[in-house]
Amino acid sequence: MRNFEEKTIASQTIYTGKVVQLQVDDVQLPDGRAAKREIVKHPGAVAVLAITDEGKMVLVRQFRKPLEKTILEIPAGKLEAGEDPGDCAARELEEETGYRATGLTHVVSFYTSPGFSDECLHIYQAEGLTKGEVNPDEDEFVELVECTLDECLERIQSGDIMDAKTVAAVYLWQARVSSGR
Amino acid sequence: MRNFEEKTIASQTIYTGKVVQLQVDDVQLPDGRAAKREIVKHPGAVAVLAITDEGKMVLVRQFRKPLEKTILEIPAGKLEAGEDPGDCAARELEEETGYRATGLTHVVSFYTSPGFSDECLHIYQAEGLTKGEVNPDEDEFVELVECTLDECLERIQSGDIMDAKTVAAVYLWQARVSSGR
């Protein structure tokens, strides 16, 4: 493996917000030339792949200001400082959907936009779902939607599901179903 | 479907860079309360799901400054202003890997981080691959890696593949192989 490291020459914090921090770095490329890198720091997030006893995926519809529209996603939320991702997954699942899980197992973690952000998203699989009360965050307005695998695949085709973590979760579910696991 | 729209009261552009633009909006929530939304505007990107005649996925290893490490991803790149995503996919595939495709078919589009960014990523499937010269962008340093499906799944398990679009592409490939398509 060759060394492609970009050495930091200078780093400037442009903005520190509630969710993200914007930083611009001057770097030296492997060939010695200079470049700028715009970096959005993010605390990380979790999402939950939850399939009901009826074989339906638990989804939430919510308004996303960056898109100026409501989209369909698996339950998810930002990590609080120092919070265990598994605890966060359990909390977000219950707050957004009312479902409680007897167990949550880590499935996969990935960087959502490694070109400009360090956000890492951890997907957990929920087991033993039971339905309770919906209790969303103060500034969160969500609607519960439950879909079969075929419905999820149709919604990906039609553009009704257009969220990276949700697309990944649906394909993973499809791969498991197709391979009989 | 209920209306969860967040009305913009004020919008401030904090930073305009080469890749991203940071904007902070004051919004009115559906219940009338006020909140702030931090929004990272991005031109969008494409990525290519390319499987060689030997049944291997075409990947590139590259340094990602936000993560301060090299990661393994499917070939991808930012959209230029007004560029057709299919043309961009063909260009990035050839620049980064040396592979040319006789055809590129749109598979899926998704928002990578809808909570804070409008980045939309379009995945194309490449057909009819032929190998030519690698010719990366001036400030891009990439290494070609080719992996079987089993190797990709192992690399997801081990954390060697930790990129959202690549994880989604591998699961899609697995689902297709498992269902015999």
UniProtKB/TrEMBL annotation, chains A, B:
It comes from the Bacteria. GO terms for molecular function: hydrolase activity. Transmembrane segments: none annotated. The keyword Signal does not apply. Its cofactor is Mg(2+). GO terms for cellular component: cytosol. SUPFAM superfamilies: Nudix. InterPro entries: NUDIX_hydrolase-like_dom_sf, NUDIX_hydrolase_CS, NUDIX_hydrolase_dom. Signal peptide: none annotated. Residues 40-176 form the Nudix hydrolase domain. GO terms for biological process: nucleoside phosphate metabolic process; ribose phosphate metabolic process. The keyword S-adenosyl-L-methionine does not apply. Keywords: Hydrolase. This is ADP-ribose pyrophosphatase. It comes from Laceyella tengchongensis.
